[in-house]
């Protein structure tokens, strides 16, 4: 008996009719295989398209959360400017951390006392965060609010750079361009007459802030934000106590405790937004939204401290904000209108 081997199956062929029957089977299998391939291709394309849309949606949501969080970050800066006279940065930070733990306890109990398996990451975040916090408080107590805010908003550039180096996150050309233009805008806004130790302290605070935001990417999405915030404040209390011993316990009053509770409410809201945002999307894709906090600082400086930007400062603000709004939109339009390559069938 002669046979035909096609598509991994042996087809019997005892006669001419069997030959025609086998050929028809082969054609039928070809059609089915082509249909399966087409359907699989459509399914893969659908999955890829859906995944792309979902990714873009996550980035947009994360950026919106960061913008909302930066509103509270600016309010925190305002509260520091209102600290009672005679207070020092270490004393205020120590009281603020204690108040933070007390404020977070109900949320932690409400979440059924969640725990973590990433204590080392939380220990690193809490202590670097405490070091950066005391530097920022000293800067806000000694320098104008606009100067401190401008220096601190070098952090998004640091986030992009360290995200690319340490987390191996992919940074596109448009993200590099938007970040660099934003940093140029900060330099235009800053125009410091001189860089003093308080300015360097604010830059150190920005660096620790960038480290903290990147460290959030190492925590799983399933971890409850209440335990993240609780450990961020709780684990840093020993370090803040050492700072108090070095700088001295000064200016303790109920007014200071009340201001600590108020500023802490703003800060906790900001940290909660950061936890949600930086877990939802890559740090380099959403860090540009941190620049909006500078606009909130300008607004509150005008409303509360009678500060306003001159013409050159508005140019700097434009460099900060407009790239984050225009460049991604132009990039998306260029991708949509890019001419597709057409493959023409060969003649003959």
From TrEMBL:
Residue ranges of domain EamA in the record: 62-190, 200-325
PANTHER family hit by this protein: ACYL-MALONYL CONDENSING ENZYME-RELATED, BLR2811 PROTEIN
Record organism: Shewanella sairae
InterPro entries membership: EamA_dom, EmrE-like
Name of the protein described by the UniProt record: Membrane protein
Bilayer-crossing regions: 58-76, 88-111, 123-143, 174-191, 197-215, 227-246, 286-305, 311-332
Keywords attached to this entry: Membrane, Transmembrane, Transmembrane helix
Pfam hit, one: EamA
């Amino acid at each position: 008996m002669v046979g035909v081997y096609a598509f991994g199956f042996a087809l019997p062929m005892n006669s001419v009719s069997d030959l025609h029957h086998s050929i028809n089977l082969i054609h039928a299998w070809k059609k089915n295989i082509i249909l399966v391939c087409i359907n699989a291709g459509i399914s893969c394309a659908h999955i890829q398209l859906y995944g792309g849309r979902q990714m873009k949606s996550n980035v947009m949501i994360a950026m919106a959360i960061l913008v909302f969080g930066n509103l509270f970050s600016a309010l925190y800066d305002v509260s520091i400017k209102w600290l009672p006279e005679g207070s020092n940065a270490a004393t205020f930070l120590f009281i603020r951390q204690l108040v933070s733990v007390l404020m977070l306890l109900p949320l932690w109990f409400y979440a059924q006392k969640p725990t973590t398996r990433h204590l080392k990451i939380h220990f690193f975040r809490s202590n670097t965060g405490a070091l950066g916090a005391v530097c920022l408080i000293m800067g806000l107590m000694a320098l104008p609010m606009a100067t401190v805010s401008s220096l601190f908003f070098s952090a998004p550039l640091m986030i992009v750079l360290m995200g690319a180096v340490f987390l191996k996150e992919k940074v596109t050309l448009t993200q590099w361009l938007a970040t660099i233009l934003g940093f140029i805008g900060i330099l235009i806004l800053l125009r410091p007459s001189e860089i003093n130790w308080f300015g360097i302290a604010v830059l150190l605070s920005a660096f620790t802030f960038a480290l903290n935001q990147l460290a959030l990417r190492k925590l799983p999405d399933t971890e409850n934000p209440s335990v993240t915030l609780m450990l961020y404040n709780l684990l840093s209390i020993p370090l803040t106590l050492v700072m108090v011993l070095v700088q001295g316990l000064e200016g303790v009053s109920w007014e200071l405790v009340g201001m600590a509770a108020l500023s802490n409410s703003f800060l906790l809201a900001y940290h909660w937004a950061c936890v949600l945002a930086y877990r939802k999307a890559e740090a380099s894709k959403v860090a540009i939204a941190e620049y909006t906090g500078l606009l909130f600082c300008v607004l509150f400086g005008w409303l509360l401290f009678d500060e306003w930007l001159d013409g050159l400062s508005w140019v700097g603000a434009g460099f900060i904000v407009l790239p984050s709004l225009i460049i991604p939109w132009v990039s998306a339009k260029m991708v949509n209108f890019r001419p597709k390559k057409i493959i023409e069938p060969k003649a003959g």
